[in-house]
Amino acid sequence: MSSELNERTVEDTRPPGGGDRAQYGVCAFLALLGTAVIVDGLGIAHVTSSTDPVGPRTVPVLLGVLLLVVAVLYAVDVARGGHGEPEAGEDVDLSTGSDWRTVLMLIAAFVVNAVLIEPLGWVISGTLLFWGTAFALGNRHYVRNLLIAVTLSLTTFYAFAIGLGVNLPAGVLQGIL
């Protein structure tokens, strides 16, 4: 009798009638999301020009229609008995507790960044953020991490300023950067 129970598969535990209700919930969510995107897209004024003959409403409406198509195809697949493979998991020992020390150090790094970004500027606060995150996650190459953090901060500072036209706070380095 016990060998009978051990040989049961995932399909044996499925409810009869062609599918899992949770999967139909995902289908309904996709359909609602698609409908909302279409309705919102149709609310955009239809404006065309010689440089943009399609207008701004085409992409949202197209994405909404694609979401509806995916919802219908997924519902048909679930009704036919299709199901995803169970997740194999990761190399995580679920018997151990949460690592609150790491979580608290990461929160501290973000809070320090939020508090110091205006007075010290992005480059310094971003460096502290990147270095503190690497430290919290267990990397103990302090000098190398500091060099990488400075490089990341400067790169993102100039990428935002030059590439996007968004000026991040320079803080105490106002005349230098």
Task: Summarize the structure in words.
This protein has 177 residues and is mainly α. Helices cover 61% and strands 0% of the residues. Helix 2 (21-42) packs antiparallel against helix 3, helix 4 packs antiparallel against helix 5 (122-136) and helix 5 crosses helix 6. The longest helix is centred in the last third of the chain and has 23 residues, at 142-164. The mean pLDDT is 87.
Considering the chains and any ligands shown, give keywords for the structure.
0% strand; mainly alpha; 177 residues; single chain
Summarize the structure in short.
61% of the residues lie in helices and 0% in strands. It has 6 helices and no strands.
Please give the structural blueprint.
Layout lengths: L1 H5 L14 H22 L15 H22 L20 H21 L1 H15 L5 H23 L13
Helix pairs in contact: 2-3, 4-5, 5-6
